[in-house]
Amino acid sequence: MLSILPMHNPIQNYAWGSREKLATFLGYSTPPADPLAELWMGAHPSAPSQVYTQGRWVQLDELIQQSPDRLLGKKNTERFGPHLPFLFKVLAVDRPLSLQVHPNAKQAWAGYQKEEALAVAPASAERSYKDPNPKPECICALEPFWGLNGFRPPEEIERWFAWLAPKALRPELDILDREEGPEALSGMLESLLHMEPRRRVEVLEHARSRVEEESELNRQDPRYWMAVLLAEHPGDIGALAPVFLQLMHLSPGQAAFLPPGRLHAYLSGLGLEIMANSDNVLRAGLTSKHIDVQELLKTMDFDRPEQGALEPVPGGGGWFAYPSFTEEFVLSGFELGPGCPRFEASLTGISILLCVQGELEISDQQSGEGIRLVQGQSVCIPGCVQSWTASGRGRAYVAETGVNLGSSFPDR
Hints:
Elements: E1 5-8, E2 11-12, H1 21-25, E3 38-41, E4 50-53, E5 56-59, H2 60-66, H3 68-72, H4 74-80, E6 86-93, E7 99-101, H5 105-117, E8 137-141, E9 145-151, H6 154-164, H7 170-178, H8 181-193, H9 197-213, H10 222-232, H11 241-244, E10 245-250, E11 255-258, E12 264-276, E13 282-285, H12 293-299, E14 313-316, E15 319-321, E16 330-336, E17 342-346, E18 351-364, E19 370-374, E20 378-381, E21 387-400
Antiparallel strand pairs: 1-4, 1-20, 2-3, 3-6, 4-5, 6-12, 7-13, 8-11, 8-12, 9-10, 9-12, 14-15, 15-16, 16-21, 17-21, 18-19, 18-20, 18-21
Helix pairs in contact: 6-7, 7-8, 9-10
């Protein structure tokens, strides 16, 4: 009989990660030798979680394949097949990630089929589409989190470029002055990405000189982040991104949804990320990896404004949830304490629960089995578990699919 399943989750060591943030969150007694960047909770084939069931540890993706309806829930199996449609992560960012965008469903399918037909190797640096799936994502701050998320208005970019290097950036300024709306943004970005090397060096020298003229810049100022990016990527035109993209600052508990087509980059902080279970990334800068400019421009949505920070919406009984814009995932959570020591939920599909603070007891109401969680520990709650309870003092986040949106709220 399947009940609530303890999890062992893989950690990804990337250069942009932190030797402190994730290690502290997970309670390490000594600092790790390498930066810890991402804790993965899910069934991604390249690094699936393990779950404990019937006296042994089993990969979650294998368990789902063996019994998809019982693990995922029938609605999810009917919609997504025998696959977990989301990946839940803890991100620890000490150095900026690349400028990137992810495809929508139609673009992902077409791009994947094209590269398969061309026999582009899955591990090739030229491969943009690793799977046929879209990749919307959501980031939720556990500590103050900084990033770049969507374009500034064209007139605002024009003012920044005029301050930065009016002569060297004349072609881009002309485009911003001549075109309007999405055409101004796409034309400006294409011109930047195709900039010939000599002019690129001149522009970046002007940028470096301008930020060096400023004193006591703080993180609320895009020039602060431009100085960071110029130091990290001295020859990359993507270092100008803080003055053509919106600066995103999330306080703990705030979240942001990043739809397919949205140009973005994470800069610093510790947060939860939930995304569709895809590895499709097209890059625009701040990287040594492959950049396919034409494919990137085809994939981007220049007409979808950034909607600002998402606040959790209370659902009663200590429960809260974030607005969801996709059926692959929804993020919610609960906080228990003296005024609310116990919570009960009913589900019709799989969920992953992560304790981010305190100590909680998660129990299957049908079997009576319970699991104690402390900060950094997680469980998988299969779709066949009809209801569960949480007790103790602490805070947890829950990842599930949008197919079951609203089913976790006790008053629905």
